[in-house]
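Thread: S-adenosylmethionine complex, take 2
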Amino acid sequence: MPGHPDTRRRPPARRVRGRPADLPRRTAYDVLAAVADRGAYANLLLPKLLTERSLTGRDAALATELAYGTLRGLGTYDAVLKACSDRPLDKLDPPVLHVLRLGAHQLLATRVSDHAAVATSVDLAKAVAGPRVSGYVNAVLRRVSTRNLDQWLAIVAPARESDPDGYLAVRYSYPRWIIGAYRDALGEAAGSELAAALAAGDERPRVTMAVYPGGPARDEVMPEGAEPSRWSPYGFTLPGGDPSALIATGMAAVQDEGSQLAALALARAPLANAPTRGVVGEAETLVGARPARVPDGERWLDMCAGPGGKARLLHGLASTAGARLVASDVHPHRAALIQGTFAGHGTSGAASAVLAADGRCPAWRAAEFDRVLVDVPCSGLGALRRRPEARWRKSESDLPALAELQRALLRSALEACRPGGVVAYVTCSPVPAETRDVVNAGLSDMPGVEVLDAPAVLSEVPDLRSPDPRFAQLWPHRHGTDAIFIALLRRVNRGRVEYD
Ligand SMILES: C[S@@+](CC[C@H](N)C(=O)[O-])C[C@H]1O[C@@H](n2cnc3c(N)ncnc32)[C@H](O)[C@@H]1O
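Output below.
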């Protein structure tokens, strides 16, 4: 976690014997320590620990709240702890700092009583760092407990007027560079929406699922208390609880509604002319709606498909439309996950293939596909709700290398697309360096590409227009989805393009 002291030193190894009395707090602590010390992902590790330790119901909910809430709130809690500690935080043993952060979260953002938050933190500190630290932990957390969060913010956050980003960084617990990137992504709307966008990234999303197009209808699959998604005809959100039983039936899979809408946008985007596969010829009329059904069925490519969320939906949509889908990912283990998402779903009317291939060195012919999804690897800054540590782990210096890869993948996607066909360039990040800048670079790399009106293709979804109104940008604070960016690009064949 750049900028956070706990990445700089490894904690002393300590063996905890027996079953800790306060297993939810110990579990949250273990997640914090693993994230800081070994680069673990909280959303992968926590479910594993809950199962291993047989934590369910309220205990599982407490462990989850403490782990996720503390990781998200680190920026705020460190500012408060700094004011309450007579030792610099970067001089503390990492286990002590983890315990203090967990304690600060309980005191400032939960309904745990002050007494319980302090006493359990002192016990945890003794268990993970030894008895000598208990007096210090007790003293610091008692100081934290003397004020509520708003009162602390008035003391520790920079003044909003003189340092707006510094204020937002402490108030909403973000690195400054992400605040600047969100401001650029929102454009003129930043004045009224930036704080809401940051606040939305601090919330825990409800679990959203998607049924399989062509499979049992949503109403038949949704459990009691679930709500249909606002725009995706396949989506629904669970009232809470564990989706694994439903996943095991194969009738629904966890998928953010924004991700569902990105797949739908590709499937719906208007093609220009009938497929002329393998032949790239002179221009034809490029206006007009997508043919209801092309004679030999459309060919679709999902070029960065692992682990397969969008590919699963596209597989169902392709099956019902008589199209064929190729889903590919550079990593064989992720390609195997895609295969798993197709399992159990019939392929009537469609043949699907899963490949492990680098999208930049295509395993397919140029101009082979009618529709291509390129859901590029990105910073993931649009899914901060789901990945609580991501904001601390990414840095601005990661963006140029990502943008270079994204630009190469976009170019490859455009080359894979036939004249008149459509590429959907999708990111789970709203950051301009990964979204509109890459698309604009792609347009200059490749002549003969027109930008379609992506918000119009998803016309039922309000407020999609990003500062460049041709592109669609979903936002957690506007749409309740991840911050997914969608550009729809159509190949036109102005002049002859030669391929090897
Ligand atoms: C954002 S994820 C895709 C998510 C996926 N579309 C879904 O909905 O589940 C990006 C994927 O791109 C893959 N990837 C990275 N570099 C690639 C490359 N050069 N060629 C193809 N896939 C690549 C990663 O392995 C990762 O699975």
